[in-house]
C-alpha cells in the first residue's frame, strides 16, 4: 500500500508539473493514426547544420536506423512554404509538393472557389507572378521532439497585397511522421483570400515498378509500393485524421504512379465556418508513413470493441426487402427456424424507409399502439412477425431512415401490387420543421435522395420529391425518444436496428456552414455527432446497429464504423476513377485482399455480412443460381463475412429458394463464425507452386490478387483455403487432401469443424458438405447422386410425404439438425422435416463475456452472451431469449441482447434466466481508474530497455516506476504516449549491466485518476 500511495503521488505530481495551464479533461474520442505509429525503438530529432535539415530517426536497440525522415530546410520548396519530406533509408520523398492549399478567388456562396495547390501557388506564374512564400522561422522543441515551421504567403490581388500565415509542426511517432498544419487567424483577409485546406501533392523518387493499390475497406487511403535500390520493399501512405479536422469537404485526386512520382489521396477543403466567413481556420493532422509492410501504413481502429461483437460473431444476416407483406415475412422466419436456422440477425427493410413519405414520425400512433402502417399488413400482422423473431432468439432490426424530415405527400393513396387492401391515406408529416433541415451556405435547403427511384413500381411513380436532410446529431436527439417507445414498455420486441447511414467520410449533405444551423460545421464534428447518434440509437433499441454498405470512391473507410456500427452490408469499393465505371458496380473485378478486414476491422465488430447486396456482387439474377453462389460463398469467407440472404417472404418468387438458403447457411455458417470469433492471425497467398506468401511478398512477386489462392489460419488451429483462381487447386487442409475448383474452398479446425465446396474424391464431382459439431451436418449433392464421408447415408431415401412425390435426391439439400434431432430436406421452394428421436433437453446455462469484465471511465460498455447447453453437450445462443437483469442497476445495466453499460462505480451481478432451473450469473466491475495492460519488454540490451503498456482510455500522462531490486529508492520515467495516449513506451537508458529491476506501469487518465499495473522483473544483460 505504501508503494501504491507513493506511485500515485509521483504520477499525480508529475501530471500537475507537466500539464499546461488551463488544461481540461478530454473525452475519449477516436482518432485515425497508422499502425506504424506504434513501432518500437528509440526515436530522436536533431538539427544537422551540414545538411541544413532536421532528421527524425527511429533506431532499434542496437542503434541501427529503422526509419529516418529528413526535413530539408534549405530546399527551395520549404523556403517558399511548400512541404517536402524525404525518407533517407529508401530514397523516397513521401511529400514533395504538399501543404496548405489556397483560395485565390471569392467563390459563390455554395462553392469551394478556386483552390490552388501549394506548389502552383509558389511556382506557377498564371496565378500570381508576384506571389512570395517566405519561411519566417523554424525551430526545434527538444522536450516535445517537435519541429515547427512558420511561413508567410504574400499574394497580390488587383494591386492589393494579401498576407496570410501558416504553421507546420512535425513529430515522429514510431515509424510515422505526424504533421499538424494550421493557419494564423490574426494575419489574414477574412473576406476572400486565405489557406483553404490540406493536400499531400506529389511524392517523388518512387523507384521503377511502383504501384498504387487500395486495400478493401481502407479504400480512401491509397498505398504506394515499390523497391528501394537496395532491393528492400517498402510501402508509402499519407492520410488525414478526419476526427481532428476542421474541414467541410473532401476533394480527391485519382491515385496514380507516373514515373517516380505518386499522388492521389483524399484531401481536405474548407467551405465556411460557424460565423459564415468564407474560410475557417485550418486545423489539420496529416500522417506520412514509409514502412516495410503494407498494413503498417493503414490506420488502427481507436475505440473499444463493440459490445455486440461476441453476439454478432455467431450470426447470419437476412434482410426482408421492401414492399413485402408482414404475414409472408413472418412465415419465412417461422419456416427458417423450423429448418434449424437459429443464429440470425433479421432486418425488416421497408419499415421506415420505403417509401420515404412513410418515415417516422408521420405515422407513429401514440403508445402503447405499435408503430406500423397498414401498407403491408395489419397491426396484428406486424406484431406476429416481430414475435416470430423474438420466439427464436433472432435479433429483429427495423430499418430506420436517417432522413427524418420528409414533408410527405398530401392526400395520396399508395397502392403496391400484391399489398394488403386498405392502404392508408398519406398526409403531410406534422413533425416537418424546415428550421431543423440542413442548408447550404446560400441558405437553400440541401437535398437528399429522390424518392422517384424508390417508388418506381408503385402508382406514385414519377411523383417523388427530394427529401430535406436533417443533421445526424439533431436526428439523434429527436430519435432517442422514438426508439425508446419502439423498444420500451408498450413497444414490441426488437434486437437492434438498421440505420440508413454510410460508413465513410460524411457526404456534403451532412455538413452545413450556415450560422445558427444545428448541423455540423466540420467533418470532425459530424463524425463525433454521428457516433453519438449511433450509440444513442443502439442504447434505445437495446441491440446491435447495422448500417449501409461502403461503396463510395475516395471516402470509404471502415474505421468510421467498426465498433460503433455492429454490422454493415459489405461491398468492396472498386473504382478510383469515374472512367472505370460507377463506384457501386459489381465487385468481382478488384483485389481480394482481406488482411485489413480480418486483422483489424473484425476484431472490433463481427457482423459484417455478405458482399453487399446480392446484385452488387456479380449482377445476380433472382432467384440466385448455384454457380453464382459459389463465388459468393468463397468471397464472403475470404473476408470472414457472415452468410446473408435477401428475402421477400415465404413466397415462390423469393430471391433465394429454400434449397439455396439452407445450403448457404449450413455450408458457410460454421467457418464464418469461427473466423469472426477469432480472426485469423495469418493470411497467405499461394503462388501456384505450393509457396505461401504474405501480402507484401505477393505484391512484390506480381501475383494475381484479383483471383488469388488464399490461406487463412487463426490461433485456435482453424485453417481455411479458398480458391479464387481459374484452375483447380490440389492442396491439403489440416492433413485432408482436397481438390478445390474455381470458387471452391475447404476449412477445418481441431474441434471437428469441417466444411468444403470441392471435388468429391469418391466421385470426382463437386459437392458441398459441412459438419459443425453439436450443430449440424449438411450435404448438397449438386445434381449428382453422391455422398461424402457416408453422409447422408441413413437419411435417404427421403421419408414419404416430406417432399413432393418424385423429387430427385440429387436435387435435395439434406441436413441433420443435431440441436433438434431432426432431418431437414429442401428442394427448390419445398422443405420438409423428419424426426430422428426426442429433442435433447437443455440442462445448463452459462454467460460468456467478450474481451473484459472490468469497465473504466474510458470504456463504458461490454457485451455478454447467454449459451444454453443440452444433454448431448450441444450449445445454442439464447442471448435474445433469456431474461436479463442487473442486481445492482445503479452500477451497471444490461439490455435485452446482453449489452452491459456502466452507470456507477462498484460491482454488479448480471443475471440471465432461461427457465426455472436454467439460470446463470456474471460479475462485472466498474472502476474509475484506467485499466492497464500487461507490461511488454520490446527491447532488452545492455544499452537500452524499451518497455510498453496499454491503457483502455486516453491517459495524458503515463510513467514507468523503476526499482533496482535490493537497492532503496524509486525512479519515475515518464513514458511517451502514442498519438492517442493508449499505448505508452519508456526507453530506459543507463541501467546497470547485470542488475535486476522491478518495472511497474502507472498512468493518470484525463479525469486525474491514477492506476498501477502489474510489476515485471527484468535483468539487464
Properties at a glance:
single chain, 1021 residues, alpha+beta, eight-stranded antiparallel sheet, 13 helices, 59 strands, 14% helix
Q: How would you summarize what this structure contains?
A:
The chain has 1021 residues and is of the alpha+beta class.
How would you characterize the overall build of this protein?
The protein has 1021 residues and is an alpha+beta fold. It contains 13 helices and 59 strands.
Number of helices: 13
In order across it, which strands form the biggest sheet?
A: 30-29-31-32-35-36-37-38-39-40-41
Task: Please indicate the percent range of residues in DSSP E strands (runs of 2 or more).
Answer: 25-35%
What is the number of E strands? Answer: 59
Q: Which residues sit in consecutive blocks of at least 5 with pLDDT less than 50?
A: 14-27, 354-374
Helical content stands at 10-25%
Mean of pLDDT: 84
| Mass-distribution shape | globular
Cα separation of the termini: 31 Å
Amino acid at each position: 500500500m505504501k508503494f501504491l500511495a507513493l506511485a500515485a503521488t509521483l504520477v499525480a505530481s508529475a501530471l500537475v508539473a507537466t500539464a499546461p495551464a488551463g488544461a481540461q479533461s478530454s473525452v475519449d474520442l477516436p482518432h485515425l493514426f497508422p499502425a506504424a505509429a506504434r513501432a518500437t525503438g528509440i526515436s530522436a530529432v536533431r538539427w544537422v547544420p551540414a545538411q541544413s535539415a532536421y532528421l527524425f530517426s527511429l533506431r532499434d536497440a542496437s542503434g541501427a536506423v529503422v526509419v529516418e525522415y529528413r526535413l530539408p530546410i534549405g530546399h527551395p520548396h520549404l523556403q517558399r512554404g511548400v512541404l517536402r519530406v524525404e525518407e533517407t533509408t529508401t530514397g523516397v520523398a513521401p511529400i514533395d509538393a504538399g501543404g496548405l492549399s489556397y483560395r485565390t478567388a471569392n467563390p459563390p456562396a455554395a462553392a469551394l472557389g478556386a483552390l490552388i495547390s501549394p506548389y502552383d501557388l509558389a511556382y506557377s506564374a498564371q496565378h500570381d507572378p508576384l506571389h512570395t512564400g517566405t519561411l519566417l522561422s523554424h525551430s526545434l522543441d527538444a522536450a516535445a521532439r517537435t519541429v515547427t515551421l512558420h511561413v508567410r504567403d504574400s499574394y497580390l490581388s488587383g494591386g492589393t497585397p494579401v498576407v496570410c500565415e501558416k504553421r507546420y509542426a512535425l513529430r515522429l511517432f514510431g515509424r510515422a511522421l505526424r504533421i499538424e498544419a494550421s493557419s494564423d487567424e490574426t494575419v489574414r483577409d477574412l473576406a476572400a483570400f486565405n489557406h483553404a485546406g490540406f493536400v499531400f501533392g506529389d511524392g517523388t523518387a518512387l523507384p521503377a515498378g511502383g504501384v498504387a493499390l487500395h486495400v478493401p475497406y481502407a479504400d480512401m487511403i491509397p498505398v504506394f509500393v515499390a523497391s528501394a535500390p537496395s532491393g528492400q520493399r517498402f510501402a508509402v501512405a499519407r492520410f488525414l485524421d478526419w476526427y481532428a479536422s476542421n474541414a467541410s469537404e473532401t476533394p480527391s485526386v485519382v491515385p496514380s504512379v507516373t514515373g517516380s512520382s505518386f499522388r492521389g489521396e483524399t484531401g481536405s477543403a474548407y467551405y465556411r465556418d460557424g460565423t459564415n466567413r468564407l474560410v475557417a481556420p485550418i486545423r489539420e493532422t496529416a500522417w506520412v508513413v514509409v514502412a516495410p509492410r503494407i498494413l503498417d501504413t493503414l490506420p488502427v481502429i481507436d475505440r473499444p470493441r463493440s459490445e455486440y461483437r461476441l453476439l454478432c460473431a455467431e450470426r447470419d444476416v437476412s434482410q426482408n426487402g421492401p414492399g413485402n407483406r408482414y404475414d409472408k415475412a413472418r412465415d419465412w422466419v417461422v419456416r427458417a427456424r423450423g429448418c434449424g436456422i437459429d443464429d440470425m440477425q433479421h432486418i425488416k427493410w421497408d419499415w421506415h424507409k420505403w417509401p420515404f413519405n412513410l418515415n417516422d414520425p408521420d405515422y407513429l400512433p401514440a403508445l402503447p399502439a405499435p408503430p406500423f402502417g397498414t401498407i403491408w399488413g395489419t397491426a396484428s400482422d406486424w406484431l406476429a412477425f416481430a414475435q416470430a423473431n423474438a420466439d427464436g432468439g433472432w435479433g429483429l432490426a427495423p430499418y430506420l431512415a436517417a432522413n427524418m424530415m420528409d414533408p410527405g405527400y398530401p392526400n395520396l393513396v399508395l397502392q403496391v401490387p400484391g399489398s394488403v387492401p386498405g392502404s392508408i391515406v398519406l398526409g403531410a408529416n406534422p413533425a416537418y420543421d424546415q428550421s431543423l433541415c440542413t442548408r447550404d451556405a446560400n441558405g437553400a435547403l440541401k437535398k437528399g435522395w429522390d424518392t422517384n427511384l424508390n417508388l418506381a413500381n408503385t402508382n406514385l411513380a414519377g411523383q417523388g420529391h427530394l427529401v430535406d436532410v436533417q443533421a445526424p446529431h439533431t436526428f439523434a436527439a429527436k430519435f432517442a425518444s422514438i426508439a425508446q417507445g419502439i423498444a420500451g414498455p408498450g413497444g414490441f420486441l426488437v434486437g437492434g436496428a438498421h440505420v440508413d447511414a454510410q460508413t465513410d467520410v460524411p457526404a456534403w449533405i451532412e455538413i452545413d456552414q450556415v450560422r445558427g444551423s444545428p448541423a455540423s460545421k466540420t467533418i470532425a464534428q459530424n463524425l463525433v455527432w454521428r457516433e453519438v447518434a449511433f450509440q444513442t440509437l443502439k442504447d434505445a433499441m437495446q441491440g446491435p446497429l447495422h448500417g449501409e454498405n461502403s461503396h463510395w470512391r475516395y471516402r470509404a473507410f471502415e474505421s468510421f464504423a467498426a465498433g460503433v456500427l455492429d454490422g454493415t452490408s459489405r461491398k468492396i469499393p472498386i473504382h478510383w476513377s469515374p472512367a472505370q465505371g460507377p463506384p457501386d458496380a459489381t465487385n468481382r473485378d478488384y483485389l481480394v485482399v482481406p488482411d485489413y478486414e480480418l486483422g483489424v476491422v473484425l476484431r472490433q465488430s463481427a457482423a459484417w455480412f455478405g458482399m453487399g447486396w446480392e446484385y452488387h456482387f456479380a449482377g445476380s439474377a433472382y432467384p440466385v443460381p448455384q454457380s453464382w453462389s459459389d463465388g459468393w460463398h468463397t468471397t464472403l469467407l475470404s473476408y470472414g463475412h457472415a452468410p446473408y440472404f435477401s428475402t421477400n417472404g415465404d413466397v415462390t418468387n423469393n430471391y433465394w429458394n429454400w434449397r439455396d438458403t439452407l445450403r448457404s447457411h449450413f455450408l458457410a455458417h460454421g467457418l464464418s463464425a469461427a473466423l469472426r470469433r477469432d480472426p485469423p492471425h495469418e493470411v497467405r497467398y499461394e503462388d501456384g507452386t505450393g509457396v505461401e506468401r504474405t501480402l507484401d511478398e505477393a505484391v512484390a512477386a506480381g501475383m494475381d490478387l484479383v483471383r488469388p489462392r488464399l490461406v487463412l489460419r487463426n490461433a485456435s488451429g482453424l485453417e481455411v483455403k479458398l480458391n479464387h483462381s481459374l484452375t483447380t487447386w490440389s492442396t491439403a487442409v489440416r492433413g485432408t487432401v482436397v481438390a478445390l475448383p474455381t470458387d471452391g474452398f475447404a476449412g477445418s479446425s481441431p474441434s471437428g469443424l469441417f466444411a468444403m465446396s470441392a471435388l468429391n474424391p469418391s466421385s470426382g464431382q463437386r459437392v458441398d458438405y459441412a459438419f459443425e459439431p453439436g450443430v449440424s451436418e449438411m450435404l448438397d449433392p449438386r445434381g449428382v447422386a453422391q455422398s461424402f464421408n457416408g453422409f447422408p447415408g441413413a437419411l435417404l431415401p427421403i421419408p414419404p410425404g416430406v417432399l413432393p412425390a418424385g423429387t430427385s435426391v440429387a436435387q435435395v439439400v439434406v441436413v441433420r439438425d443435431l440441436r433438434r434431432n431432426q432431418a431437414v430436406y429442401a428442394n427448390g421452394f419445398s422443405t420438409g422435416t423428419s424426426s430422428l428421436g426426442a429433442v435433447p433437453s437443455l440442462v445448463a446455462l452459462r454467460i460468456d463475456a467478450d474481451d473484459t469484465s472490468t469497465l473504466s471511465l474510458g470504456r463504458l460498455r461490454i457485451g455478454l452472451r447467454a449459451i444454453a447447453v443440452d444433454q448431448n453437450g450441444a450449445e445454442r445462443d439464447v442471448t435474445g431469449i433469456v431474461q436479463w437483469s442487473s442486481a445492482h442497476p445503479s452500477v451497471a445495466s444490461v439490455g435485452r441482447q446482453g449489452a452491459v453499460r456502466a452507470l456507477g462505480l462498484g460491482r454488479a451481478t448480471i443475471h440471465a434466466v432461461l427457465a426455472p432451473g436454467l439460470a446463470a450469473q456474471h460479475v462485472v466491475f466498474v472502476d474509475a481508474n484506467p485499466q492497464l495492460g500487461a507490461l511488454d519488454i520490446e527491447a532488452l540490451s545492455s544499452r537500452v530497455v524499451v518497455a510498453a503498456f496499454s491503457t483502455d482510455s486516453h491517459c495524458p500522462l503515463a510513467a514507468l516506476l523503476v526499482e533496482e531490486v535490493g537497492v532503496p529508492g524509486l525512479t519515475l520515467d515518464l513514458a511517451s504516449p502514442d498519438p492517442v495516449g493508449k499505448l505508452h513506451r519508456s526507453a530506459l537508458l543507463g541501467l546497470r549491466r547485470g542488475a535486476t529491476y522491478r518495472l511497474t506501469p502507472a498512468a493518470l487518465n484525463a479525469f486525474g485518476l491514477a492506476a498501477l499495473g502489474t510489476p515485471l522483473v527484468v535483468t539487464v544483460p
